[in-house]
Amino acid sequence: MPYPVIPETITVHLGAPDEAAANVTVPFVDYIKNVASSEIYPTWPESAIRANVLAQVTYAMNRIYTEWYRSRGYDFDITNNTQYDQAFTPGREIFENIGQVVDELFNDYVVRQGNVQPFFTQYCNGSTSTCPGLSQWGTVFLANNGQTPYQILQYYYGQDIGIVEDAPVGGNVPSYPGVSLRFGDFGEEVRTIQRQLNRIRRDYPSITQIYDTSGVFDQRTEQAVKDFQRIFDLEQDGIVGKSTWYKIKMVYNAVKKLADLNSEGITLSEADRLYPSVLRPGDSRNGVRAVQYYLAFTNFFLFDMPILTLDGIYGPETEQAVRRFQRAYGLPVTGEVNYQTFIFLVRAYEEIVSALPPEYQTSREELYPGQFLTIGSEGEQVRQLQEYINAIGERDGGLPRLTVDGVYGQETDRAVRIIQQKEGFTPTGSVGPLTWLGILNLYKGT
User: Using CB atoms within 10 A as the burial measure, which of 31, 168, 188, 397 is most buried?
Assistant: First the structure.
């Protein structure tokens, strides 16, 4: 899961979760001002006000970050029903001093030290209702006794909490990448699913363990998805569509107890990224070369444009090609490549390759098949890869002799890793467009 960002807006359901009620979308900072003005008094000591505002910001952030309601099929982030969430009254008056505190603290939130997700800062008023978390009236007592906002929060949530200050503000973007993930796909979103399924497996051990969580949707990942779908009564197709994505997230939240005071939490290592979320003009990396590979092909067959240079530099030519592709496929025309644009690009490439006319048949054998080749892959492309590797080994040595059977097994994986190591690629054992192109060039002696 990614690092949290403060959302620009939040969608509030004006009732209990299953109640037929309106949704309103408001700026996040205005939402917190409304909640704070609805739940606490402007006459309270400033330390108490600040402690409560931090708890309210963090509570809302937890609901958004975990997609608590959206992972259950709702179209909102939080309710205004105090039985479930925080009070929110549309159009209510905002107290001036509370508004000023919120303006200062709206992008600060509470975490358990060593974790990245906003802590579930459960609270109640402490007079008509009590709970294991923070007591709002209790904060007044502590503030009057000289406690700081941080000390007040520590009193209720433990000594090991911390405050993230000045967190970045960004769009409230759903985590689902917008396209289904399947065998042969690749990227950070696949890696997210792999890590979440491995954690869920600790509570549901019949789910296949995924040993390599490098972001390649391999055979074990496909089987783990099918196992999960079987357990939770979803169609067992091994594809992570929207319903499977959010079911995985909901179960992951549950086993990690991310909406509980005793949350297991999400550690820094669990939130790291191997791959950038967006490629944009000015970038220079292997990911850009992969995008250029797909763009070069689609440029030629879809737009009759000159072939792009695969230089790994996201310059004006690449940006123009991205915009052209996004416009043609009805995507937001940003000139940047997020995961949705990348997957649409891969799918377009696959469709073109599969529909090439006979005059391109010879060249087709040399084209990257579109999907990552990895353990469990089978077919003509694997057979072709094995022939290339054997030819390279006969000339250069140092590679195992492969059986050309079209089945991507352990020996093929080992040979690919050796080539990747020699050619300066990360030795994953899986063949994406750049490894395929590297092997093809070695085969041709170029």
Answer: 31
User: In angstroms, what CA-CA distances link 380 with 21, 368, 369, 385, 432?
Assistant: 55, 12, 10, 9, 16
Least confident window among 157-166, 268-277, 383-392: 268-277
Burial of 392 (0-12, 13-18, 19+ CB in 10 A): buried
Task: Identify which has the larger pLDDT, 299 or 42.
Answer: 42
For residue 245, the SS3 value is: helix
Strand-pairing partners, residue 25, are: 11
For residue 125, what are its two tokens? 């008023």
Two structure tokens written together for 44? 């309270």
For the cut 60, the answer to whether the pLDDT of residue 81 exceeds it is yes
Could you give the C-alpha distances from 233 to 208, 209, 212, 373, in angstroms and in order?
Answer: 17, 20, 26, 29
The string of DSSP codes covering 57-120 is HHHHHHHHHTTTTGGGT-S-SEES-TTTS----TT----HHHHHHHHHHTT-EEEETTB-SPP-
Closest CA to 186 of 443, 411, 389, 377: 377
Q: Where is pLDDT greater, at 4 or 238?
A: 238
CB 236 within 8 A of CB 85: no
Burial class (CB in 10 A: 0-12, 13-18, 19+), 61: buried
| pLDDT score, position 263 | 93
pLDDT confidence tier of residue 12, bands split at 50, 70 and 90 = very high
**Taking the chain, what is the end-to-end CA distance rounded to the nearest angstrom?**
41
Dist. CA 139–CA 44, nearest whole Å: 9
Runs of H (alpha helix) within 160-212: 188-201
How buried is 397 (Cβ within 10 angstroms: 0-12 exposed, 13-18 middle, 19+ buried)? exposed
From 194, 243, 247, select the one nearest 221 (Cα to Cα).
194
Q: Which of 231, 243, 236, 239 has its CA nearest to residue 204? A: 231
Q: What is the DSSP secondary structure assignment for residue 360, as one 8-state letter?
A: G
